[in-house]
């Protein structure tokens, strides 16, 4: 009896699996095309119903929560499918059913549970940061404790606390006038716009004499008219721009897209890094002629601009929701390509790492693999510039020339010159400040002299009285970088303000021997080395400098790796990458900031190599030494446009050779490399090539160019790896033999033992908590996250809801995950 029961159960499982896969001729299959059925947002979803062979398409009944929605679907007799957008989904679970009419539930039928989330979010996150100040049609200044508001670029006000504002549409046309301005055509707040803007407002039914035409990659020639959709999603403000024919009577829907859209999306990510609690309009310029003229859609959202959002999970969540909105509104996406510089590169890399498949290809420029490991160098630099200005270092430097002093700083910092840390301190050295603060800035790039400004500011951009203060307002809004992502990190007791909580943080410099390689190279003396490590100190949880070293919250370390917030080389190996790298390793006026170090591109490559047996064939690196970004037409054509066109070919090849099963499916590195266009390879333009006419494929020649050489970071000088993905090092006993042939005095060794009572960094071992990314994770149930289960599938039997597969956090593998470096 038990044997027969087991056999029947096994047979049932096989039949159910077959039905779910749609292989049987007698079962429906329901597929969500715009997102996983459990991650839907905004109240609508594009669905496909695959119909059994024995059921005529006109005999299919489709119901949503018991309501007949059959009329919303269109049939494809050849494919035996019905497609349609279901609307008015309720928040939470919805049941969509397909069955043959009049079968009395005895014939083929299937059900799919669709879990809908509000258009204002969240989806992957369990909670949203508060407060959040909605944008308004016109900006308003702060008044007392009432926060300022930003201009939304929309004409009406938010209708709820999630800052949802009614969507608006604008039409623009491209002028044929030569020499026109590529500035944003509709700045907000309005500013005096160039009179010769390339995109001018368009009125339906008119035919301007200077109206251009364009031919898309699909061979469609149309008047160059662009529609810009502006709305709100996930509490951010977005733009979606695409070629548009206002004369068409048929509305553009997911089932009836206009043919001039080639089905491809260029998604632009914004630069910098910030933690404001205000709703912004995106800093991106939707008027991308290279993309729009060829039929690409251009999209952005203020929450994928790093300046307005440094919560990298929120960035990925917003990108996911934007893609779903595009599919539900405009139709299926062929591929999504990212671009962006600096913080925009961080948003691309972390989106690809946190939720593989959201981006099909990326073009990071001014590249950083992620923000959390970039922050290691930022905080090290803040400590270093303050140490150099201190009494101990000043005393040691007595009698030396400024050039000699600066050479020692350069050796310790690892950069092109001594000023490499100045930009980090001045631009981003205060990102982790939890409350109101005044900046201490380097005011002399030669001497490194510091001055503290007379000011009060906070990273939230809120009135000072609303912000955390350990004494007067311990439960006020915390404004440090980790605090924007408390839903990811979780919170812990705040030692600086007993009774209050703070977000967990990953910063740590315990065991780091600053200047170790400089010591071994005799660029600094043993006394300078010992004093440096004695006095450099660290930060407390409020980002105040202190004598003790910085210590991480251990649970946060594991989250950073598991979630892919430390960008995973394995996940970055799953998509095409074209990294264009300009020069910015010296302070103004030579470079804009002096912080976009070339070695960062090689650090990303090192992570990809480590996770893929030394293979980085999916990543191209294009270097040039004339500036941070292309500044001339020749440079734009040779780098920016070439990258875009190469990536288009690469992804088009990939769509043919390795088509995706779902919108956000992930490829294998081998598939990505096999689709790479012929001749696509690493190259550089040497600094003297001002016409950008001679790409050099010889990496040795590129590396010999002074402006193309990679340098290093304070942690690499301390012995750390090029990948720079160890947040907290494991320790080993301090050993005087490690300094050979140098001999430190017994007094100096005693002082070092006092600095490192538990040992020094063992860079040959994985970092504390370091493991493979388990992404994508969901944080819907709270901080820490758990691995997303299998995507829901439809079931042929009544009473079965979603099938989440194995719901274990990491399918039993997390304990065995090792690092990728």
List the main descriptive attributes of the protein structure presented here.
821 residues; alpha+beta; eleven-stranded mixed β-sheet; five-stranded mixed β-sheet; 19 helices; disordered N terminus; disordered C terminus
Question: What is the secondary structure topology, with strand pairs?
Answer:
Elements: H1 2-20, E1 29-32, E2 40-41, E3 45-50, E4 60-64, E5 67-68, E6 73-76, E7 81-86, E8 92-100, E9 109-117, E10 168-174, E11 199-201, E12 213-215, E13 221-223, E14 225-233, E15 236-243, E16 264-268, H2 289-292, E17 297-301, H3 312-330, E18 335-341, H4 343-354, E19 361-365, H5 371-388, H6 391-396, H7 402-413, H8 420-428, E20 440-442, E21 450-452, H9 486-489, E22 491-493, E23 501-503, H10 516-520, H11 526-535, E24 538-539, E25 545-546, H12 554-562, H13 569-572, E26 577-581, H14 599-611, E27 619-624, H15 633-657, H16 669-674, E28 683-685, H17 699-704, H18 714-717, E29 731-732, H19 746-755, E30 760-761, E31 777-778, E32 786-787
């Amino acid at each position: 009896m038990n044997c027969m029961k087991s056999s029947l159960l096994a047979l049932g499982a096989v039949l159910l699996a077959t039905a779910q896969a749609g292989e049987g001729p007698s079962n429906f299959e329901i597929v969500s095309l715009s997102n996983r059925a459990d991650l839907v947002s905004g109240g609508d979803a594009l669905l496909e119903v695959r119909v059994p062979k024995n059921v005529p398409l006109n005999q299919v009944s489709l119901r949503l929560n018991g309501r007949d929605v059959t009329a919303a679907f269109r049939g494809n007799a050849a494919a035996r499918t019905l497609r349609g957008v279901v609307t008015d989904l309720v928040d939470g679970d919805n049941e969509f059913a397909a069955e043959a009419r009049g079968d009395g539930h005895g014939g083929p039928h299937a059900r799919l549970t669709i879990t809908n989330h509000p258009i204002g979010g969240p989806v992957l996150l369990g909670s949203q940061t508060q407060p959040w100040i909605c944008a308004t049609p016109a900006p308003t200044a702060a008044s007392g404790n009432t926060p300022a508001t930003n201009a939304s670029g929309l004409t009406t006000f938010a209708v709820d606390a999630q800052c949802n504002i009614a969507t608006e549409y604008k039409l623009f046309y491209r002028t044929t006038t030569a020499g026109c301005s590529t500035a944003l055509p509709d700045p907000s707040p309005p500013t005096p716009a160039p009179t010769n803007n390339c995109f001018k407002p368009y009125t339906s039914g008119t035919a301007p004499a200077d109206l251009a035409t364009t031919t898309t990659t699909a061979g469609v020639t149309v008047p160059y008219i662009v529609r810009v959709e502006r709305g709100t999603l996930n509490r951010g403000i977005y733009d979606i721009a695409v070629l548009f024919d206002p004369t068409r009577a048929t509305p553009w829907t997911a089932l009836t897209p206009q043919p001039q859209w080639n089905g491809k999306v260029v998604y632009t990510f914004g630069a910098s890094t910030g933690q404001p609690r205000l709703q912004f309009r995106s800093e991106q310029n939707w008027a991308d002629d290279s993309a729009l003229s060829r039929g690409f859609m251009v999209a952005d959202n203020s929450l994928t601009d790093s300046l307005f959002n440094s919560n990298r999970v929120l960035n990925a969540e917003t990108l996911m929701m934007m893609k779903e909105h595009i599919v539900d509104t405009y139709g299926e996406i062929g591929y999504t390509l990212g671009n962006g510089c600096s913080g925009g590169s961080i948003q691309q890399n972390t989106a690809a790492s946190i939720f593989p498949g959201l981006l099909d290809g990326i073009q990071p420029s001014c590249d950083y693999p992620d923000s959390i490991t970039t922050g290691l160098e930022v905080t090290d630099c803040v400590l270093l510039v303050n140490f150099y200005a201190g009494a101990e270092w000043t005393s040691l430097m007595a009698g030396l020339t400024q050039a000699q002093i600066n050479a020692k700083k350069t050796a310790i910092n690892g950069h092109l010159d001594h000023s490499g840390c100045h930009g980090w301190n001045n631009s981003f050295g205060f990102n982790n400040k939890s409350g109101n603060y005044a900046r201490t800035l380097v005011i002399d790039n030669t001497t490194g002299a510091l001055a503290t400004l007379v000011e009060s500011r906070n990273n939230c951009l809120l009135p000072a009285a609303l912000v955390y203060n350990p004494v007067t307002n311990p439960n006020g809004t915390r404004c440090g970088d980790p605090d924007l992502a408390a839903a990811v990190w979780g919170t812990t007791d705040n030692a600086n303000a007993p009774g209050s909580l703070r977000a967990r943080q990953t910063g740590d410099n315990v065991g780091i021997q600053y200047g170790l390689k400089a010591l071994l190279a005799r660029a600094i003396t043993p006394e300078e080395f010992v004093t440096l490590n004695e006095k450099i100190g660290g930060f407390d949880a409020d980002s105040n400098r202190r004598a003790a070293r910085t210590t991480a919250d251990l649970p946060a370390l594991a989250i950073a790796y598991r979630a892919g917030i430390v960008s995973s080389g394995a996940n970055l190996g799953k998509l095409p990458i074209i990294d264009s790298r300009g020069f910015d390793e010296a302070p103004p006026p030579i470079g804009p900031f002096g912080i976009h170090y070339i070695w960062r591109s090689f650090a990303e490559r090192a992570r990809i190599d480590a996770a893929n047996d030394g293979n980085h064939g999916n990543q191209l690196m294009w270097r040039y030494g004339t500036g941070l970004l292309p500044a001339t037409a020749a440079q734009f054509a040779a780098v920016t446009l070439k990258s875009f066109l190469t990536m288009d070919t690469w992804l088009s090849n990939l769509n043919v050779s390795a088509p995706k099963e779902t919108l956000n499916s992930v490829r294998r590195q081998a598939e990505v490399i096999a689709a790479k266009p012929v001749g696509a390879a690493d190259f550089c333009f040497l600094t003297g090539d001002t016409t950008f006419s001679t790409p050099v494929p010889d990496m040795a020649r590129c590396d010999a160019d002074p402006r193309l050489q990679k340098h290093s970071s304070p942690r690499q000088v301390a012995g750390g790896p090029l990948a720079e993905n160890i947040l907290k090092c494991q320790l080993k006993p301090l050993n005087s033999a490690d300094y050979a042939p140098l001999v430190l005095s017994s007094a100096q060794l005693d002082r070092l033992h006092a600095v490192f009572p538990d040992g020094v960094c063992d860079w040959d071992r994985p970092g504390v908590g370091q493991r493979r990314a388990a992404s994508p994770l969901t944080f819907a149930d709270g901080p820490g996250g758990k691995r997303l289960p299998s995507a829901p599938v439809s079931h042929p039997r009544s009473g079965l809801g979603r099938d989440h597969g194995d719901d274990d956090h990491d399918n039993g593998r997390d304990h065995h995950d090792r690092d990728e470096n």
